[in-house]
Amino acid sequence: MAAPSFGPPAGPPPVRSGVPPRDAGAVSSVLGTPTRATIPLNKLAPEAALRRLELTIVRRLEGYLHGDHLGLLPGPGSEANDARLYIAGEDDVRKIDWAVTARTTVPYVRDTVSDRELEVWALLDVTPSMNWGTEGVTKRDLGIAAIATIGFLSQKMGDRFGGYVMKPDKLRRLPARSGRSALYGLLRTMLTEPFVPDHATGPMTLANAVEQMSRAQRRRGLRVVVSDFLTPGDHELDPNEPPEWERSMRRLAVRNQVLAIEVVDRREIEFPNVGDMLIRDPETDFERYVNTADPDARARMDAASSAQRERIRISLRRAGVGHIQLRTDRDWVADIARFVLAYRRVASMLHAPPTGVTK
């Protein structure tokens, strides 16, 4: 099931004591859709704390180690790459491939292969279940902070960073560019993206978004998927039953080094004792009153939530991707730093390609 939303009849929201006034956006997310970001742009990733860390890259990438140096040619590159659909407002009309457009009667653009070593693409889930947070920050903004941290850890001279924003009805592409200013621009765009209201519907799912990113970005590199990995209407707790997105994640990991960042809120896994509480699913029509003063009821809910998270962990491990779990009540920079330090020892084994696939 998707992240719960506490309804108005439940009384005051279960938030941490001493939440400053500027965090009112996260507090209001308990009762409705937030209206503004809960983390300012300059607080997303403290660069001073990341200068001595570097994300380990173990999969073979395209190019010949040009990432640490200037490219041989200026600009994005000169070698033709795959053609893809033209996106109005995002693509340069000068890149339209008229031969493919004439054959298909649909505008296509031809990408070029840049003289770079590493190309990072991050997929951010902004569906209604990500709008929720009880600890001064929403899960959506925590996911953006995680993307900022990974961006600073993986960025070197000439490397490019791009993004996708997944909504219930569409997948928005943010072009990959190099440089610190371009990374800040991408983060600002994600922060100012309009919030998706509860019960918004559409054909886009996490599995579809991962598949589209995999097909559109054929150049090998680092892929970061940020989500709570909750599928609306999926109540399965058996870890032997794979979620619908597992196959897509495994396919993405065949050619790329993939990092899955799972964002959770404390009250999704530790239900508070606040008496009768209305629990609503922001992505379906599920609503139910629960007496959280009953210790047995809280124990059953906590056990079901733990089983749900364990199923996600096992599925990501089966897919062969790196997995970080970030919580809204903890320091995300410290959690990512601990992961990066431990990642050096297991990255080569975790991202070993399938038999017959070139590393």
TrEMBL record:
- Tell me which InterPro entries the record gives: DUF58
* Residue stretches in coiled coil: none
The highest taxon in the source lineage is Bacteria
Extent of Pro residues compositional bias:
1-15
Q: Where do the record's region annotations for Disordered lie?
A: 1-31
Give all residue intervals belonging to the DUF58 domain: 82-310
Q: What is this protein called?
A: DUF58 domain-containing protein
